[in-house]
Amino acid sequence: MSMLTFVGLGIYDEKDISLKGLEAVKQADLVFAEFYTSPLAGRRLERMEEIYGKKIIVLNRKDLEEKAEEGILKEAKDKNVVLLSAGDPMIATTHVDLMLRAMEMGIKTRVIHASSIVSAVAGVCGLQIYKFGRSATVSPPFGSTISEVPYETVLENRRRGLHTLLFLDVGMKISEALELLEEVERRRERAGKEAGILKEVLFVGVARAGSETQVVKADYADALKRFDFGEPPHVLVAVGELHFMEKEALVRLASAPI
Amino acid sequence: MSMLTFVGLGIYDEKDISLKGLEAVKQADLVFAEFYTSPLAGRRLERMEEIYGKKIIVLNRKDLEEKAEEGILKEAKDKNVVLLSAGDPMIATTHVDLMLRAMEMGIKTRVIHASSIVSAVAGVCGLQIYKFGRSATVSPPFGSTISEVPYETVLENRRRGLHTLLFLDVGMKISEALELLEEVERRRERAGKEAGILKEVLFVGVARAGSETQVVKADYADALKRFDFGEPPHVLVAVGELHFMEKEALVRLASAPI
After folding, report:
1. What is the pLDDT of residues B41-57, one digit of tens each?
2. Among A71, B154, B237, B256, which residue is least crowded by beta carbons within 10 Å?
3. What homologous superfamily is domain A3-112 in, according to CATH?
4. Taking a C-beta distance cutoff of 8 angstroms, is the pair B134, B153 a contact?
5. With an 8 Å Cβ cutoff, are A122 and B210 in contact?
6. pTM above the 0.90 mark?
7. Do domains B3-112 and B117-254 have the same CATH topology?
8. Domain spans in chain B, listed from the N-terminal domain onward
9. Rounded to an integer, what distance in angstroms lies between the CA atom of residue B42 and that of residue A138?
10. From the candidates A14, A97, A134, which should be mutated to test the interface with B, based on the most B CB atoms within 10 A?
11. Fold of B117-254
12. Distance of alpha carbon A218 from its chain centroid, rounded?
């Protein structure tokens, strides 16, 4: 049967795919994957092909955006096509957009969900999911421009006692993200804007969540910046007000200095 | 090797467990499961035992809370024990607490993540994950007392243009949740508190997310209350400001009347 199935690979390695996802891959005529919206992390393409028993064709941004109609969508009109991506497939708006375009072309679509840092991060840090405010992404500077959105998001959530999940740009390290936040803080101080969170807010750095080598460490920005988390993927959590159970968990799971 | 592994069963049925989770189950000496923090949904115990190739012992709240030390934790001191639960295992604070107690007893612990409504819901509705504010849970009345927290959370997020994920108590239906929100609104109006969201806010009801019978429907409270979503699990999303891409997706994926 012809259709386009979005299959999530899950949080870290080849074995974080679900049984349902693996079945979809095995039944597919063509298996594509993309790793620009979300990283390979602990996956190796050869291992994936070996475990899933299929050849995997890696697509880039152009293939999924400008060129989708003459590529993956064209194939899905008369083949059973799977698109693999890290984490939960529908976190990336690119995939939602691709699904809508497929629907417009009369292509049957399906989504097979998987584990994601979005839902895993709370438990990894021992924080409560309903105490997370909106999230934001720390992106590399564009020329001399650095987005203040992540900094403002932390400020805004903190005012309400909420935690903030900060996604880091693919490949970015916690130390780089904290340095960008520091630069934003310096600029805001010079501009007389509200600032001062980096000395007051406890951050939790999470590296390789869901892996055997996962590292979770809580500290203030200046100390955390010098902590060696090893290889990405990395994310950061800015901690809001702590329930006593969260406090205990943060000490036990992230050696928080509190 | 003796240890306690928390394995997520994922979003809906027996096949939403990850390959890694299945391996942990197969290697376990004892496999427990609990379905009071998060529902069985599309799972059947017999199907799980058949597919996973293990006998599964279902535990209740008492077994995991007051009686854990003489039960599951005692077993994990010298056996390889797995605890299965729906969704991502660490969303439930009960499991974080159990993990900390295990660590105190010197028991090695491990978490194997899985798909969760927390990360899946955005894509299911076509909404952007970073535009979700804090979430809340709609619980049944306690005597004549109805929690105003879900209502206030929607108000607070809406002020900032954010979406709100409302978890429903295990087994609760969207219609019941909306009726509770309506009762809260009536009480707030009588008390002269800020109210009036139920006529103005677009809600998205999601039933059986991640299943073949998933239903996603967006409408205003009064109409949505009368829509037949079928069996739980159900969740609700209160929509904030919509990006044009979200608007298009909400129309296509949830037949939003906008």
Report:
1. 999 999 999 999 999 99
2. A71
3. Tetrapyrrole methylase, N-terminal domain (3.40.1010.10)
4. yes
5. no
6. yes
7. no
8. 3-112, 117-254
9. 38
10. A134
11. 3.30.950
12. 19
